[in-house]
Every structure is written in C-alpha cells, then in structure tokens.
C-alpha cells in the first residue's frame, strides 16, 4: 500500500482532504470503529481518524482463507441483525468487507492482517482456525475464528488478542524513554513504513500478557 501525504478519498470521505499522520497514541478509527496506532489519515475539519487501510479500501478483494468468497467493501453492516467478524469474532459496526453469497464478514484490519509475524526470534503464522487454548487470554477458542500459531506450535493466540497486544506493545515501545523508536516531524515516510511493519520482541510481549492474564485469574 502506498503512502501519500494528502489526498481526497471519493470513496469514503469526498468532502475534505485527508492528511497522513503518525501517532504513537492509540486512536479509534471513525471508519471501522476499531483501535489503531501508527499510520493514520485525519480529516481536521471533521476530526475524523482513519486507519491507512480504511482510508484506502479496496472495492473488492479475495482472501487466501476464503478463496471462493468475493468480499465487497461496505461503509456499514448490511441488514438489521448484528454482524460479527469471521476473523476476530468481534462485532462489526463500521467499515467492513462482506461476502454476499455466504454472509461472511471481516473487519478491514482483520482483512489486512499479515500472514506471518516474524520478529527474527519467533514466527507466528496466521491460520483460519483456532486449535488450542489461547496463550494470552487462557480461553478456549477451538474451531472458530482465526488465530496466530508459532511455528514451534507452543503459542496459539486469538487474532483479537494479538491485535490488542500489538497496539499496547507499540504504544509502550514508542513511549519508553531511550526506546528504539524516536519519532520527530522530520522522520521520513520510509521510516514510518519500517515502524508499521517493525515488531517489538514477540516473546517478551507474550510473556507479559500471559503473566497479566494469569494474575487476573487468581
Ligand atoms: Zn479502520
Ligand atoms: Zn471531513
Ligand atoms: Zn463467501
Ligand atoms: Zn475482525
Ligand atoms: Zn485469546
């Protein structure tokens, strides 16, 4: 996906220009209503914030997990019943991709999840089902929803747990004093690209979250 500093999206917000911004604070996307961090597009007139992939959606796309589906981009869920994302199992209330023939729904951020998360030490692969207890939240999620599984098979994680974890970990990473990431106004666009795909140590995050959820259970 390309980065442009300013553009008008005839698709999602034709009224005003959207400006690229980089934020180290989590924000709620006015498109898909999900949390985001890092690259975003902002309309200063309406004070709207959009994920990069929500500001630049594809009209339709095919996902490798559902090759028979043709997902269409919609600004809101169709019909009157509540709809849930096939990937993270959370409610869909804004921008979404919908397959009209089988009724599958996916959040734009779930549709754009990387197939592999690799920090050089641990490799997590995206899978179309969950086959064990989630290492992060300790809950079962067998069969339904997507998951990330480490190649060593030790870690099974709900997609929703990974999404939340990464936002928090990135937030900590940007904010820790003397941390690896420094953001200033003259940080180049290539730098942002690196930040968006760069990962904090997955093992460290996993252990942190594992400890926290264990503490909550006792
Ligand atoms: Zn969004
Ligand atoms: Zn606007
Ligand atoms: Zn389908
Ligand atoms: Zn989702
Ligand atoms: Zn979980």
Automatic annotation (TrEMBL):
| Protein name (record) | Uncharacterized protein
Q: One MF term from GO for this chain?
A: metal ion binding
Q: Does the keyword Metal-binding apply?
A: yes
Q: Which InterPro entries match?
A: C1-like_sf, DC1, PKC_DAG/PE
The record's keywords, sorted A to Z, are:
Metal-binding, Repeat, Zinc
Classification from the root reads: Eukaryota, Viridiplantae, Streptophyta, Embryophyta, Tracheophyta
Q: Which organism is it from?
A: Daucus carota subsp. sativus (Carrot)
Q: Name one Pfam family in it.
A: C1_2
